[in-house]
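Two quick folds needed for the group meeting slides. Do the first one here.
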Amino acid sequence: MAPDKRPLSPHLQIYRPQITSALSILHRITGFILSIGVSFFVFWLSFLALGGETFSKIHCFLGTIVGNFALLALLFCFIYHFFNGLRHLYWDAGFGLELSSVYKSGWFVLLVSVIVTLLVWCFAGGI
């Protein structure tokens, strides 16, 4: 067979990163992390039902710096995924589809996610 002379479809090497693509990828990543986090939470609760020893070990780990960082990251994933999901629902209703509005709402969702994450973390006693 003769080699195909057709041009290849542009890929990540061609396009410069944009806020829209970065937030789309972040939305998928946070959804995946949330599925892992929920699984961890279910195991954590099942260890509580099995006995206090294993639950206590996991609870002690969550009190460390690494554990606090993991909980903070999971909290950010939840809040970002929630607000970006609301943004997608807004789009599904046919609003905010202009390019300038898409960029503004993207930065807004990112900023609000960071602020709300820090507020929830502070009020929950994380710091």
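Then this one, please, same format:
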Amino acid sequence: MRWVSVDNPIPLSELNRLAAQRFGDLVKAVVDVRRILMVADDELHADQEAVLLCDGSDQSDLWGINLYPSLQGDDFIEFDSMINLRPSRGNRSRGIDDPALRELIRSIVARLVAR
């Protein structure tokens, strides 16, 4: 599992390597939108979520994504994870229903991935 922050960004080349080692074309990640960090590269978003919760994150700030390092633009990030199912917060899908939240996550990932 790789911790990624503004002070410790992840190069796109490393994302490509991680994708090739585990899933072939994607890297699973969980973003903490309050702390502006993410953990990447594990089998399950739930495992990444658990690590962040133990480190002091609030569950309401954590969102699961998939990164496709060989793709660009909107195709680079896929908003799809079981941890995103939060009917009590109005998110009734594995995606992220709120367009403003999706944009926030895009901007955070742009800061955390060194291209």
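Slide caption for protein two: The first strand starts at residue 2 and ends at 5.
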